[in-house]
Amino acid sequence: MVNFKEDESLHMLNHSCAHLMAQAVKHLYPDAKFWVGPVVEEGFYYDMDLGGAVINDESLQNIEKEMKKVAKTGIKIYRREITKAEALEMFKDDPYKIDLIERMDDGNITCYDQGDFTDLCRGPHVDNVKLCRNFKLVKHSGVYWKGDAENQVLERIYGVCFPTQEELEEHLKLLEEAKERDHRKIGKDMEIFMVDDMVGRGLPMFLPKGQIIWQELEDYIKAKERKLGYQHVMTPCVGTVDLYKTSGHWDHYKENMFPAMEVEGESFVLRPMNCPHHMRIYANKPHSYRELPIRLAEIAHDFRFESSGTLKGIERGRHFCQNDSHIFVTPDQIEQEVKGVCSLIFDVYKDFGITDYRCVLSLRDPADTKKYYQDDEMWNTAEDALRQVLNDIGIEYTEEIGEAAFYGPKLDVNVRPAVGNEYTLSTCQLDFCLPMKFDLNYIDGNGEKKTPVVLHRAILGSLDRFMAYILEETKGNLPLWLAPVQVKVLTVKNDDPELNAYAEKVLDILAGEGIRVEYDDRSEKFGYKMREAQVQKVPYIAVLGKNEAADGMVSYRLHGEQKTTTVTQDEFIKLLKDEIKAKTRRV
Questions:
Q1: Whole-model pTM?
Q2: Which residue out of 121, 132, 275, 359 is catalytically annotated?
Q3: 516-529 pLDDT per residue, tens
Q4: What is the DSSP letter of 331?
C-alpha cells in the first residue's frame, strides 16, 4: 500500500487536500478552530475544535460535499510570508494557532491563502484546489489536544487524495481489503482477544480461543529452541530502578517505561525488556569458557507506556510477551551464533510461509549523543563485527543509520504485512555494552577473566504481534495445528435423539484423540450454524445426518468450500492428525 508521507508528489497533494477539508469545515462550522493537519503514512488528517459539535458519518458526507463544491471553483492557492507579530494578530482569537506561533522562531512565517481561507503552513502546495478533487474522507475519531488527557478533546478527520479517480478507487479497494484483514476485526469475529477500557487501553486480554493459539505458538518456538540447546528461565515482571540504572535503560528508555512504584523504601518499575534480568542470572555463578555459549530464553511479559495514538490491538500494546533470548558468547563464537539465530529465523519463516521481508543492519547515529551509549571504540568494534558476520554468511541487507539499540547494532528482519506498512518481526542484536555494565565475566583458556559478548535475539518478536501478523496474513484461516477449534460438529437436524447421540459419540472420539472439537447442539437452523462456523474460520466442519449415523461415517466440509466428503471415523482422524503433524499451511 502506498506511503503518502514518503511519496513527494502525493505528500504535497494530500497536504493541500487537508487545507481544502479545513476550508470546507470552516464553511459548515464557522466557529471551527484548527490545530495541525499533517500528512501521515496513510494519507492526511486535521485536528479541529468544532465548538462542541461531534463528527459522525453523516457529518463526513456533508464535509465531502462542501469540499467537492469548493474544488470545482478551481481557486488558486497562494503562498505568503508574514511576520510573527502579524501572525499573532491574524490568529489572535485562535488559541491553537497562537500556541503554534509562540513556539516558532522569530522571523517570517509562511501562510497559504485559498479564497476565503488562510492557514499557517510551510508548504509546498499544489497550484489550485481543483487538483485536490479526487479525495475521500475515510474515518474520524476524538483525540486530546497535544495527546494530553487533561486537554480539550478535538475532532480528527482522516482522508486520502490522488491525482486521478482511478487511483483513488483502487486505493479504496485496498482499504476495504485491509478492513477485512484487520486482526482486530478477525480477533473479535473469532473470539480471540478483547480490550476493555476499565482494564486499560493497550492491555489486551486473550479469550479462551486466543489462549489456545498463544499456547501453540509458545510450545512451537520452545520446542525449536530446546533442540538448539536453549535453556528456558522465568523472571519477574518488575525490577528495581537500580537494575535499570545499571543497564542504562533508565537514562535511555525512561520515557517509554511506566512510572516507578515506591514500596518499603525501594523503587520498582514494570519491566520494558528482559535483558537486565538475564544479565543477573548469568552473574549468579562463575563461568568457564567451556560453558559458552550459554543460551537463556524466556517468553517474558513486558510493559511499555506507548502513546494512546499508537495502540493497535495486539500488534502494538502496553503489555506484550517477547520470545526473548540472550546468548552469552566468546568473541570467536559470534559468527557461529549469529548464523544459528539467522537460521532459526528463516526456518520459522519457512514454516509459516513468510516470504515478503527484508534484512536491515541497524546502526547508531554518531551525532546522537543522547540516544546512544557513548563509546566510539565499542561501537566501531560491534558494528564491524556484525557487518562482517552478515557478509560471511551471505545475508543480503541494507544499512540504516540511527536504528540501533542504545547499547549496540542489530540485524532487524522487517516484514511487509498484508495490512499497513512494514515493521520489525525478528531481531538479533550484538551487545558489548551491557556485559561490561553488569561486570560479567568468564575464565578463558589461560585462566584470565574475560568479558562475554551478548546476542539479544527474538524470533517471533512478541507473541502478540506475531499472532496479529499471522491473523492478517491468513485472514484468520489458520493452519489446522494452530486453529483454536479444529473441528465443528453439526447435525442436519436438532431434534433427533439418535443423531444427537451419534454426534456426542463423534465428539468424544475426536476429543479423545487430542483434536480440539466443538459440538454445536443449539436449536438454531442448520444454515445459520454453518454460516457461523465459517465466520469463526473453523477448518473442518463435520456434518452428520442419518446416513452417517447408520454407517458410522463422517462427512466433512473444509472452510470456504461447498464440497462435502464422506469418510470413516478412522480415516477422518488420520486425515486430521497428518495435517496437524505436517503443519500444512492453508491458502
A1: 0.80
A2: 275
A3: 999 998 888 888 99
A4: G
